[in-house]
Amino acid sequence: AQSVTQPDIHITVSEGASLELRCNYSYGATPYLFWYVQSPGQGLQLLLKYFSGDTLVQGIKGFEAEFKRSQSSFNLRKPSVHWSDAAEYFCAVGAWGRDDKIIFGKGTRLHILP
Amino acid sequence: DVKVTQSSRYLVKRTGEKVFLECVQDMDHENMFWYRQDPGLGLRLIYFSYDVKMKEKGDIPEGYSVSREKKERFSLILESASTNQTSMYLCASSSPGQGASQPQHFGDGTRLSIL
Question: Is the model's pLDDT at B101 over the cut of 80?
Answer without folding.
Answer: no
